[in-house]
Amino acid sequence: MRNLIISLCAVLFGLIGGAVLMAATGHDPLQGYKYLFEGGLKNSSRFGDTLATGTPLVFTGLSVAFAFRTGLFNIGAAGQMLFGGFCATVIGLNVDTARPLLLLMMIVAAMLGGAVWAFIPGLLKARFNVHEVVSTIMMNWIAYWTIYYAVPAYLKAESVETESRLLPDKATLKSAFLSDLFGGSYLNMGLYIAVIAVIVIAFIINKTTLGYELKAVGYNRHSAEYAGIRVNRSIITSMLISGALAGLGGLAQFAGNGANIQIGVLPTQGYDGIAVALLGANSPIGVLISALFFGLLYSGRGFMNAMTEIPPEIADSIIAIIIYFAATSVLMDRLITRIVSRRRASAKAGTGTGGPVSGKEKA
Amino acid sequence: MDFVVEMLNIRKEFPGVVANDDITLQLRRGEIHALLGENGAGKSTLMSILFGMYQPDKGSIKINGETVRIANPNVANNHGIGMVHQHFKLVSNFTVTENIILGNELTRFGTLNIQGAARKIEELSKHYGLNVDPHAKIEDISVGMQQRVEILKMLYRDAEVLILDEPSAVLTPKEIEELIKIMLNLVKEGKSIIVITHKLKEIKAAADRCTVIRRGKTIGTVDVKTTSEARMAEMMVGRDVTFTVAKAGSNPGEVILKLDDLTVMNNKNVAGLKRFSLDVRAGEIVGIAGVEGNGQSELVEAITGLRKAESGNIFLEGKDITRDSIRSRIDKGIAHIPEDRQKRGLVLDYSLEDNMILEVYNREPFSKRGILNRSAIRKYASDILSSFDVRSGRGPLSLSRSLSGGNQQKAIIGREIELNPSLLIAVQPTRGLDVGSIEYIHKRLIEHRDKGKAVLLISLELDEVLNVSDRIAVVNNGELIGVVEAAETNEQEIGLMMAGVGKGGEQ
């Protein structure tokens, strides 16, 4: 509940900050927000695009959030996503079989690719206590250059050097049904997979012994060890799951929203996943909602830019301000506590007690 | 009467609990005033109110006769109130001086004047007989010395009233003696001290008056000189308390734990436990006596699997478990009440119920095919919490972090005994507990023995080892000095053995 309030406050402050920026640069904020939200929600096609833009963010957000719940800071979602997407593309371009089977193979390939990329930092952490922030960032660049080399060498398009051949339609997540339903939007089956992933991850975290173990390790590895939980194995397991999620993000991006993979780009969704997880307070449902909200901002920003003089960077600034407030949730927490206690103080004479002041001792 | 601090009719409620209900505490100038109460009686809450961390719902605070509102710890500091917390708040890789001036830095032309501060600290230290080296790093000095740094921190800020929260809980007997001397010095120089403690002996030795609270209410304030320990204990617990443990003679059966020539490395990678052999039988309690840091941790960690044995063997019920994983040892019947409840014993950010299944979450009925069964977990946890009288705001759903230290300890002990292990290893099981809880824990340990199980008790409190154990093994410098029957020995003999008898071992 408190997390929800904090996230909503962060969004609110972000929007206020954006309004101030728009006003300061001589634009009408109301106009700006009108087009920003219209751009993402105006009709079913735009709404579909918003959902599609949010889909890879659901995966990377889940990836970061899951690792974080187990005490790991996975900065490498970008690299895991890239490599997962690459593996899926390799299958999609080289295997010719019935579509359900082909898609299943691509899903598995994407998960494996992402998992492999995350396994290495996990192993380094478990074995040699190498900090995962360092090793995942390094793995991002290894992925970047691997793709840079492998795509022109093996998957090159006829004319363009910098991207792979287009995937045949049956090897993408495109869905005529979804596309028609949303007025020709590029919304695809990635969204289904995303929703399934949210449910599965929520289930793992909250209901299973695996989630119990991983969270125990995340909160306090000494007591996890004391209880006989294998800490090192848990770290690796957590990274594998986190990487597989990011890999699925690659699938949703390169074989869903797009239809090929480009070189020389580290997908921005990787780092955005951190922001999504932060705003979603690391809960799977929170991640889903905040990813779709980010999708809205990203897909509405082009429209705002087209309809007004407001530069698209304003939308990025809004996102940045939101991240800032979500990241400083401790401050927000204090602010809320202060407001609550002030209200209690002013309404003191009445009931006196029973208010929602936290039971935390010695903050 | 000249009171420095008066807390009058204080009331404080938290969701689900009344922590303080009409408590009055009056501190005279220049006295040591003990605040005595069971775990969770509301002592810490009361002191947190005086120190400005909580606001009272009702009641008033007077300092030097004037009513004040203490909005936060800074206000408390300005009124000359300083607090030494049970868990020290020091930066371990800073020097003593740096820690003391932190937040109150002495500057000259905008730069730190460390030398000037160090000089002032040195003077203070001499004046009060604290004997602290202002240039030493915190990580290099003993716990007792760190506590003095905390006291110095208060003196440096010109505190007139010092609150000490269970100051002796972390100290060795010798350090406690020194602490008492320091406290007496401080009051001689005109300071006033409130000391929170359960230890009646220390109250007798140091305090002038004692205020007893029970379940959030003041029971009374007594003059320490004219009140017996038994009377104070009775006031605190609300019934008669026996100080000696009533138990029948032991009835040892077959060997449960056998240590054979065990050598274990310590953190510095030298042998912390040297060629140690010991048997613990079913139906007996074997106590390990020794000064802290003489191989006890290495011994416990080797048996539980947290640390690997360098050489030698560990047998449980005849089976060699030297290379077994921690989990497999737990499954074979070893339970462990760890020394550090916050580091190892609990996942503080888990609810109590999640902590109660820490070792058994993967067994039925708590989970089936990897899926947790909440209702079974809650029932199991509630049973433990009620049978061990763990007091918390929201029962099994309380965050473990929100419990008082004593209640955390009781929860851990409950969890371990509930496992019904064939070998129970209890390390400092009653540290930080009040006499009522201590009595109860001892009774449960003896009950466990009487069920025909083995208990290994490691404690720094000699009284505890002597009272509860059937046999006592004394360690010094990682070596077994000898094993004696508890009934046939005394404090002097054990004390000598702890010092290594002739092996040159004072400290």
TrEMBL record, chain A:
Keyword check for Transmembrane helix, yes or no: yes
Topology in the lipid bilayer is annotated as: Multi-pass membrane protein
Q: Which Pfam families match?
A: BPD_transp_2
The subcellular localization recorded is: Cell membrane
- List membrane-spanning regions: 47-68, 75-95, 101-120, 132-151, 186-205, 274-298
What keywords appear on the UniProt entry?
Cell membrane, Membrane, Transmembrane, Transmembrane helix
CDD domains documented for this protein = TM_PBP1_transp_TpRbsC_like (cd06580)
Cross-referenced InterPro entries, in alphabetical order?
A: ABC_transp_permease (IPR001851)
Q: Does the keyword Transport apply?
A: no
Annotated protein name in UniProt: ABC transporter permease
Automatic annotation (TrEMBL), chain B:
> Gene3D superfamilies in the record, alphabetically?
P-loop containing nucleotide triphosphate hydrolases (3.40.50.300)
Q: Where would I find the ABC transporter domain in this sequence?
A: 5-240, 257-502
Keyword check for Lipoprotein:
no
* Xref: SMART domains: AAA (SM00382)
* Cited SUPFAM superfamilies: P-loop containing nucleoside triphosphate hydrolases (SSF52540)
GO molecular function annotation:
ATP binding
Q: Which CDD domains match?
A: ABC_Carb_Monos_I, ABC_Carb_Monos_II
Q: Which PROSITE patterns match?
A: ABC_TRANSPORTER_1 (PS00211), ABC_TRANSPORTER_2 (PS50893)
| Top-rank taxon, per record | Bacteria
Question: Which is an annotated Pfam family here?
Answer: ABC_tran
Q: Which UniProt keywords apply?
A: ATP-binding, Nucleotide-binding
Q: Which InterPro entries match?
A: AAA+_ATPase, ABC_carbohydrate_import_ATPase, ABC_transporter-like_ATP-bd, ABC_transporter-like_CS, P-loop_NTPase
Q: What is this protein called?
A: ATP-binding cassette domain-containing protein
Source organism: Paenibacillus glycinis
Q: What is the lineage of its organism?
A: Bacteria, Bacillati, Bacillota, Bacilli, Bacillales
